Amino acid sequence: MKKTSPSTVVYEPEFMAGLKLIFEENICFNRVLGLRIDRVAPTEVSCHMTMHPDLIGHYGHQRLHGGVIASCMDGVAGLAVMAALGAKHMDEPIAKRLQRFDRLGTIDMRVDYLRQAIGERFEVRAQVLRLGSRVANLQMSFWGPGEELIATGAAAFIVS
Amino acid sequence: MKKTSPSTVVYEPEFMAGLKLIFEENICFNRVLGLRIDRVAPTEVSCHMTMHPDLIGHYGHQRLHGGVIASCMDGVAGLAVMAALGAKHMDEPIAKRLQRFDRLGTIDMRVDYLRQAIGERFEVRAQVLRLGSRVANLQMSFWGPGEELIATGAAAFIVS
Amino acid sequence: MKKTSPSTVVYEPEFMAGLKLIFEENICFNRVLGLRIDRVAPTEVSCHMTMHPDLIGHYGHQRLHGGVIASCMDGVAGLAVMAALGAKHMDEPIAKRLQRFDRLGTIDMRVDYLRQAIGERFEVRAQVLRLGSRVANLQMSFWGPGEELIATGAAAFIVS
Amino acid sequence: MKKTSPSTVVYEPEFMAGLKLIFEENICFNRVLGLRIDRVAPTEVSCHMTMHPDLIGHYGHQRLHGGVIASCMDGVAGLAVMAALGAKHMDEPIAKRLQRFDRLGTIDMRVDYLRQAIGERFEVRAQVLRLGSRVANLQMSFWGPGEELIATGAAAFIVS
């Protein structure tokens, strides 16, 4: 298996389009969350989402449900693993790399809630700390208006 | 402050109706998840939800998004804290006890994904391991058809 | 591979002796903690340890360091995985089963501290929730005098 | 309560000496771990420790026990909370600030093990992400020779 250095990876437009289709459309619950991809790199990805009444966790306050934050982190962490695998296996055909998504799974996740999630637009980032042959380790962060750190997270994924 | 022994608590119908309204209606995102209360006791609560296309995490497979499981656990854990506080403060008026919900917050949560969430109906349970004056500790579980344990979780809540 | 039903497993005395040697002697830090095996079953193990001045986390109080609790949980969780693997592979020679310990690794662990760890003798238990071909999921608990639940934990292990 | 901006804080030598005494001597288990303070700032602290046969988790390999890593993280996270509280309450007498250590407690902690802990000298860092009036949130990291990231962690502490 030829490995490409992460820093020199340029994803093909077809890979990016496939990733976008899987993430923003085919994963139905990501549509409910309104997640949109902003940036994809081999060790880091970034998405955003916008406030919507359905996503509110606390009537009276207008803040996001903690589960929305956890869901966004889980989703974006999975995207980051895909981006890392996509870069690691640049020698594989695009379709085969995208199929790797089928074999991903979250082993576990932790979310730390630091501040209330109030605002119109939120950013979710995930960083791949390690991509092993069996397990990937990630850290996630959830940002509010004015670069306010609202929540952090950590996750382990099974890869193959 | 008079404290009632958890084992002798019988919640008033009005308290139960208020809890149901907050949990099933006012917390908007719980409606998206379709969470319904089945049982409320001072140290344990149980809810269920049904599969819906919006909640799917993996097109092709028909399995729930990991974020849905995390969201249900966060929601049901909050309900369990409310139930515990409601039992601890039986001497308070119902409205005041229900207002305690406003001051709850998830400090952090961990979810362990054991098995694929495939099925029509899922049960979510939360148990209060400790209700302190400042922090509540909980364990959650997510069950599929045939009493299959799909995921477990742990959370800490701030209470006041 | 022949699989033996966990409920019918009777470990050979040599397997138990090997497990005890690895756990109580060869894992040097377990000696510092003073961990002793009490019970080993295919899905659950139990150990105990006794208070020692070296293990104190808070001068003035006589309570265990949080790290001691975390260390005991990590150690006992590893023992539980070994017990589960030992039962799953009863058709393998004892030495080969014991060598599986070399390939175990903690992926991650969470510890929840519920109550102060004050006392003379503590019990640590670990339960295998799922033993997959690649990942094992565990829950741990740490008990003080009078069956007081002092801490709970969850961990994922890589197995092979 | 007068609050001092973290960036302008210069700890008194007596505060630093007290912190060192508590951390390196009075917390007995930190002596077993061999933890030494390298740097203390209001939002970040750094310590180091050196390999010792007692701390080995895997005979045959010479790697640290996972519990040692967890213990170091718990310890250094507590130090970081103390440093943050010490900076927040610069208007209080030194002795009073140091006594705040008595009222700290770890609510929970997660550790992610990324790579084997093999080497002679390790560095442990903790960062305070948020210091609230009741809860502090931290991230920790454990580094091996050559700035290799061996493990990461997250913790919540109760403060008062």
Commentary on this structure:
The structure is a homotetramer of 160-residue chains. Chain A has a six-stranded antiparallel β-sheet with strand order 1-2-6-7-8-5, covered by helices on one side. Chain A has a two-stranded antiparallel ribbon with strand order 3-4. The mean pLDDT of chain A is 94. In chain A, strand 1 and strand 2 (44-50) form a beta hairpin. Chain A has helices spanning 13-26, 28-33, 66-88, 94-99, and strands at residues 36-41, 44-50, 56-58, 63-64, 105-113, 121-131, 135-144, 148-158. Chain A is of the alpha+beta class and 160 residues long. Chain A has a single domain (10-158), classed as Roll (Thiol Ester Dehydrase, Chain A). In chain A, 31% of the residues lie in helices and 37% in strands. Chains in contact: A-B, A-C, A-D, B-C, B-D, C-D. Chains A and B meet through helix 2, strand 3, helix 3 and strand 5 of A and helix 2, strand 3, helix 3 and strand 5 of B.
List the helices and strands and how they pair.
The structure is a homotetramer of 160-residue chains.
Chain A: H1 13-26, H2 28-33, E1 36-41, E2 44-50, E3 56-58, E4 63-64, H3 66-88, H4 94-99, E5 105-113, E6 121-131, E7 135-144, E8 148-158
Concise overview:
The structure is a homotetramer of 160-residue chains. Chain A is 31% helix and 37% strand. Chain A has helices spanning 13-26, 28-33, 66-88, 94-99, and strands spanning 36-41, 44-50, 56-58, 63-64, 105-113, 121-131, 135-144, 148-158.
